[in-house]
Hints:
Layout: E1 3-9, E2 17-23, E3 30-39, H1 42-49, E4 58-59, E5 64-71, E6 83-86, H2 96-99, H3 107-112, E7 125-127, E8 130-134, E9 144-148, E10 152-154, H4 161-181, E11 189-193, H5 197-208, E12 213-217, H6 221-229, E13 234-236, H7 241-247, E14 254-259, H8 264-273, E15 274-282, E16 304-307, H9 315-327, E17 337-341, H10 346-354, E18 360-364
Parallel strand pairs: 4-8, 11-12, 11-14, 12-13, 14-15, 15-16, 17-18
Antiparallel strand pairs: 1-2, 1-4, 2-7, 3-5, 3-9, 3-18, 5-6, 6-10, 7-8
Helix pairs in contact: 4-5, 4-9
Bound molecules: zinc ion (ZN) (2 copies).
Amino acid sequence: MPKAQAAVLRQTSTPMSIETIDVGPLAPGDVLVRVRAASLCHTDLEAIEGALAVPLPAVLGHEAAGEIVETGSAVETLGVGDRVVLSWNPHCGACFYCDRAQPILCRQYLANGPKGFHFDSKPRLTCEALPVHQLMYLGGFAEYCIVSAQAAIRVPDAMPFDRAALIGCGVMTGVGAATRVADLRWGDTALVIGCGAVGLSAVQGCRLAGAGTIIAVDPNPARRQLAQAVGATHACTPDEAIDLARSLTGGRGADTIIEAAGRPEAFRLSVEAVRPGGQVVWLGKVAVNDEVGFRWGSLMQEKRITRSSYGGANPATDFPMLARAYLDGKLKLDEMISTRISLAEVNEGFAALKRGETVRSVVMFG
Ligand SMILES: [Zn+2]
Ligand SMILES: [Zn+2]
């Protein structure tokens, strides 16, 4: 099994160090993936800062694409050379929630994720014979990573690795919020709060689902411009959002709101700007023990509110569909890549993400 250069987080709030780790061996259901691109997402930042508890040392990175270089003895669905996008939601397929098509709530997935190992609790990565954990069953900031075969989804060979990587988390979550979670109808008025990678993807999900009007809300004018480049019909600041939504809907408010900002004021805006009987999908989050206050009246009138972590993803079918949509020109991903960086630049990349300077930085591997 190979050695790999990896960005290893050894202590929260300190830079990751580039180290050589040992990868493997493979369990029968695993695949070895040569990572070709891995993008920087806010959830990694939460792990770096300690807001998301991850056992250390760990390799972060959960938005990645690469190619299969070896398969475990029981793997029949994938072969060497397959181009894959990685999913951070392996699931058992047999528990209460898997039975109900809610793999994001899978018992095994939720029980083992915080331990930073696979379902069998056995480490796949080591450094000087000591175990190294994988964030979200993945660990994309390394030249090689091991995932269970079901978490490696084949996409067409024509799909560029850097844009493929985005599909694995932010794009799936945003597009899925509109196409899988929200009951969006042809011609609806949709409003998306927050125009980072997830919000820009939600704008595109609304477009793909047939929304007639799509209002993108962000305080940053460059982000609003980007949202209009990928399909928003209108764009405004948070302060203007309620008035604009009402002015376009005979005073009612938007039919569907997708929140992708992760701030208390964004959650409040979402329920104020939706029409009576409309629906709200929350994708953002604040710290789990934080409280968010609402004006009670803003929650009334038959509004439906759903919180989703992965946009109702079914990666096995959705990732190839999203890749196809990109290749057909229907899903715009080029616009979301702010910069391509080397693994050694990963810490600077997160600093830029924290400052709000980048939508997505993508680590490129040779
Ligand atoms: Zn993510
Ligand atoms: Zn399950």
